[in-house]
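Table 4 source record.
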Amino acid sequence: MKLDGFGLFVNDMGSMIRFYRDVLGFEIKEDENTSNVYLLKDGTLFLLYGRKDFETMTSRKYEYLKGLNGHFEIALYVDTFEQVDIEYRKAVEKGAVSVLVPTTEPWGQRTCYIADPEGNLIEIGSFNRPFEH
């Protein structure tokens, strides 16, 4: 098996679309009233899927955390330490919740954390060089 992408089950599709499109710059073309967003971001599949729609599809109920949650993170990479600070500042100015201000860690990464409207953690980080796999 090969990792294809990841998805978020969302409660308020409109606010999540606006956040990922308007704050983080994801190219989302779907209407805010949709129940399923399917897009590629830098070669990775990214999905937003309505919680109620998923529950209907699977005929099950699920538990969802409210507020900030630490089950996973979405990691975004930029090429320089300066870009970490710039992107963090831009995201917070556009409404992202600040979780950790830009900090240079002992392992040589500059990183920061913000949260989306439903409390999912997003890291913006850099090792001060272009991204390498």
